[in-house]
Amino acid sequence: MNKKSLALLTASALSLSLGMTGCGGNGTAKEPGTADKGVVNVYNWGVYIDESVLEDFTAETGIKVNYDIYESNESMYGVLKNDGASYDVVIPSDYMISRMIEEDMLEPLNFDNIPNFEDVDPVLKNPAYDPENLYSVPYMWGLLGIIYNTTMVEETPTSWDIMFDEDYAGQILMFNNSRDAIGVALKELGYSYNTTDPDQIKEAVDLLIQQKPLVQSYVMDEIFEKMQAGSAAIGAYYYGDFLTMQEVNTDLAFALPEEGTNLYVDAMCIPKNAENKENAEIFINYMCSTAAGLKNCEEIWYSSPLLSVREALDPEVSGDPYAYPDRSILAQCESFQNLPSDILALYDSEWTRLMLAAS
Q1: Which of 51, 141, 144, 168 could pair with 262 as two cysteines, CB 3.0-4.6 Å apart?
Q2: Rounded to a whole number, what is the distance in angstroms from the first to the last CA of the chain?
Q3: 62-91 tens-digit pLDDT
């Protein structure tokens, strides 16, 4: 499969932003002969779509797309909750969807406008984070693991231990968000991602403070450039993104730690009081079409929830055990859950403690 390098993605994203970014923007140019049917304001993760899908959507529906990106669930939540930004479609992860439902931040979906939902794998329907499947439609899913440079790391990592190994001081990349970073430390200590024991969470942050002098940088999308360029040896990140990085740097490899790792689902939702709800549902339905789903899957390499897309993929891809894991791999995985408000507050204060600690 031919995929863009991150540099091309970045350049394309810049071009895209000139015509498609910002909820108050002018949107994309209308295709000749296409009726103008309004706009849809979409807020998605960075490096997480085949941008031509947005153009295809406008050409087919006449709906212009204003497209913005974020780097973490927490930053997206803050923009919606605190900044009062208005979007029609957002794509949070499982635990954040649960939190937004609990805080009445999402609109129930009209599935009459989303008939392509039928193609979603039944295993991914009625999930724990949205048990009645009222608010979300899966977009992509996958595994978290350790990405490492085989020219800089001699042996295949088998444990989260390597993220805390002094032999790699200055060569380790760590998540720049509290849930994922503290989650790595919790797993290293043998605890659940979803512990509500304050002592365990503080112990995890104590471990991260000990690790801090070894960390080259706390990153999100910046990990692409660093790992592709060989300027870091190790980082924790998502398998779909690893495949993108490996295409640029074939020295990169991926490992699942024996202590267990995160299995996540990112799903499309409509924020409360969205200005273009029907257009949002049309957009969600389009993203669940085989054509759009296949384009996205072949561009960003994440695992598709659509059965028709899996059938259409090259068998080497659909048979990849990390892209579509079997029960033995799934048994090593745990999904993030929404946490009680007092534990979320503790995460915030402990993250601040980590960031202010001397390195």
Answers
A1: 144
A2: 42
A3: 999 999 999 999 999 999 999 878 999 999
Angle at 208 between CA 73 and CA 91, to 5 degrees: 10
For residue 149, give the amino acid letter: N
Rg (CA), the chain: 20
Residue 84 belongs to a domain: yes
Strands 261-268 and 252-255: unpaired
Residues in the chain, overall count: 359
Q: How many CA atoms lie within 13 A of 95 on its CB side?
A: 19
Helix (H) or strand (E) holding 141: strand 137-149
1 located within any domain: no
Residue type, 206: D
Which tokens in the block code for residue 49? 């779509």
Q: pTM above the 0.70 mark?
A: yes
Cα 342 to Cα 196: distance, rounded to the nearest angstrom = 9
Q: What CATH number did the domain enclosing 176 receive?
A: 3.40.190.10
Structural domain harbouring 171:
142-263+322-356
Our measurement of the distance from residue 325's CA atom to the centroid of its chain's CA atoms, rounded to an integer in Å, reads 18
pLDDT by residue (tens digit) across 225-258? 999 999 999 999 999 999 999 999 999 999 999 9
Q: How many CB atoms are located within 10 Å of the residue 347 CB?
A: 17
The neighbouring-strand residues paired with 90 are 43, 269
Angle at 220 between CA 217 and CA 225, to 5 degrees: 75
pLDDT at 196 over 70: yes
